[in-house]
Amino acid sequence: MLHTRVCDVLGIQYPIVQGGLLHLALAELCAAVSEAGGLGQITAASFEDPEDLRAEIRKAKALTSKPFAVNLAMGFRKLEGHIDVALEEGVRHVSITGGNPEPYIKYIDARVPGVKKIVLVAGTRAAQKAESLGADAVIAVGYDGGGHLGRDDVGTISLVPRVVDAVKIPVLASGGIVDGRGLVAALALGAEGIEMGTRFLAVKECPAHPNYQQLLLQAKENETVIVERTIGRPARVLNTGGAQRILEAEARGATLEELLPLISGKMNAKAALEGDLDAGFVYAGQGVGLIQDIPTVAELFERILTEAQSIVGRLGHLAAR
Question: I want to staple 176 with a disulfide (CB 3.0 to 4.6 A). Which of 102, 142, 144, 187 is the partner?
Answer without folding.
Answer: 144
